[in-house]
Amino acid sequence: MAPTLAVDPHAPDEAAIAEAARILRAGGLVAFPTETVYGLGANALDEQAVARIYAAKGRPSGNPLIVHVADAAMARQVAAEWPDAAERLATACWPGPLTLVLRRGPHIPASVTAGLPAVGVRVPAHPVALALIRAAGVPIAAPSANPYTGVSPTTAAHVAAGLGDKVDLILDGGAATVGLESTVLDLTSAVPRVLRPGGMSLGRLRELLGEVAYEPITKADDVALPSPGLAKRHYAPRARVRILPDAAAVAREAARLERVGCWTFGPPPGEGVMMPREPEAYAARLYAELHEADRRGWAHLLVEAPPQDDAWAAVHDRLRRAASS
Ligand code: AMP
Ligand code: MG
Q1: Atom in ligand 1 nearest the alpha carbon of residue 229
Q2: What global pTM score does this model have?
Q3: CB 121 within 8 A of CB 100
Q4: Are the C-beta atoms of 154 and 37 separated by less than 8 Å?
Q5: 121, 67 contact by CB (below 8 A)
Q6: Which residues have C-beta within 8 Å of that of residue 210, sequence separation ≥ 6?
């Protein structure tokens, strides 16, 4: 089992950060907190270190990694082009849960981007992540620190349970506050396009850019692949997840099933969780509650559908993936 170092999320201990940075520079893997979820980090300039990420996760090599940098100046070194939209978004949204897909710069190995000519880059809004990137002095490639197709980790304990024997060090900086991955925005197309909804809302991006394209997946059994690496079954707990139109439908189904848990906006019928009515609060709970569903050994998870509204796009996306079989 990898050692875990606890760090104050607001004022990370310098010795712990220095040790983690040393491991990264030596080609090792460090799991670290960001505001979205925990990342599994490696030196993005080191092809062998990057290969270890794919091996540890059991992730197919056709699934690109996000490169984490400390600021916009470092992002410009990762990308081959820096369009006006990137400058505007970097100023308004970074550090924060927004990944920009830009043309890949010459220093980034093709394995980081699964061979694609574009690279995903972002500045995480977490003092531990920022201190680690600065101390390492290199961009850090980091997918979520969970086995492939599993539920993303929002605590160091989730990381230890899923990948504890495959990483060299886990930095424990407490629970992730956003709790759901970054929004991935493609700036290489004529109209900026959201490839994956996430912590930065569509509304905010449209305020900043005007037109932004987004095609949500609509049916649980028809989860498309809007970008490379968006696997159909993803973020999936062991329980069979179903999204039902309202609380009455949840109660009806729950009554005829065994080992069933429910997520409802009011008090759940029997075992379950009363989920927040507010999209950010719901997102922050989502993965933690999927992990909890596994821990409780539910065979079925019945979810009352959230409102059909753009503010809920990221939550809908993750629920549909969790529900796809
Ligand atoms: P994860 O690392 O698990 O948060 O997943 C990263 C996701 O970001 C990938 O699965 C892609 O959907 C997206 N992504 C990262 N880099 C690129 C890229 N170069 N082009 C398109 N999508 C990307
Ligand atoms: Mg992931």
Answers
A1: 10
A2: 0.94
A3: yes
A4: yes
A5: yes
A6: none
Q: What angle do CA 297, 197, 323 make, to 5 degrees?
A: 30
Protein residue with its CA nearest to atom 1 in ligand 1: 143
What is the 3 state secondary structure string of 125-161? CCHHHHHHHHHHCCCEECCECCCCCCCCCCCHHHHHH
Give per-residue pLDDT as tens, 239-289.
999 999 999 999 999 999 999 999 999 999 999 999 999 999 999 999 999
pLDDT at 14: 96
Residues contacting 278, CB < 8 A, separation 6+: none
Report the pocket of ligand 1 as residue ranges, CB < 6 Å: 63-66, 101, 113, 116, 118-120, 143-144, 181, 184, 195-196, 227-230
4-214: CATH topology is: DHBP synthase (3.90.870)
Q: Which two tokens stand for residue 180?
A: 């759901």
Predicted confidence (pLDDT) at residue 176 exceeds the cutoff of 80: yes
Q: What residues are neighbours of ligand 2 (ion), with CB under 5 Å? A: 144
CATH fold label, 240-323? Rossmann fold (3.40.50)
How is residue 222 annotated by DSSP? G
Of the candidates 60, 193, 154, 71, the one whose C-alpha atom is nearest the C-alpha of residue 115 is 60
The ligand whose atoms approach the alpha carbon of 229 most closely is 1
**Residue linked to tokens 């694609």:** 116
Atom of ligand 1 nearest to the CA of 231: 10
Taking CA atoms only, the protein residue closest to ligand 1 atom 19 is 119
